Amino acid sequence: MYVGGYFDTVGGYLPAHGIARYHEPPPSDCHWLRPRVQTAVHEDTFYLTSASLELSIDFINNNAYAESWRWSFDGNASFAAGDTVSNIYTAPGTYTISIEVSQDGCLKTAEKQIVVEDITGISHKLSENDIDLYPNPVISTLQLKLTAQDKSTPIRVINQEGKTLLQDSIPPGSSRYALDVHTLSAGSYVLKIDGISKSFTVVR
Description:
Blueprint: E1 2-4, E2 9-10, E3 14-15, E4 19-21, E5 37-39, E6 45-48, E7 55-61, E8 68-73, E9 79-81, E10 84-89, E11 93-103, E12 106-118, E13 131-134, E14 141-146, E15 153-158, E16 164-170, E17 176-180, E18 187-193, E19 196-202
Parallel strand pairs: 6-12
Antiparallel strand pairs: 1-4, 2-3, 5-7, 7-10, 8-9, 8-11, 11-12, 13-14, 14-17, 15-16, 15-18, 18-19
């Protein structure tokens, strides 16, 4: 690692005029290799709906430059792949994803659990407590967290004069949604979703 800046010594005694090189010998206990599995969408719960009876879920290991990755789904035989794999789910349940990572003679394992829920045919009337908006105030992207529905959920952004400025729909089975509001001017707005009104403020 090279460091540049306004200094003439490093470590309090070594001369280094504006640039220094740091080298750390490789560790012998493999503590630096810490595999972790996450889903590509950073979610742990997924939903089967009448529009999505089959889910393809991507899993990513954080050790992108390892020498090898061996994956296993629910204790089945492991298989070699890259740092990203996909699996298909068609039934509700709790599933375990395992990985074995090797690099520079080190071998480590990690696990991840996900939950698949069947909400086929379930679409209840959302209440105000079912919907969260953040951050608020917002600059460019408003995040919505809501109870997943088995139908598309229309959303509208309305200004103080009652004019609709943005509209979209949240896909079935989505419990999170990112709404791009960067085109809106600074001010107060209302988000209409399934008959619920939620206020938010845009800042610039």
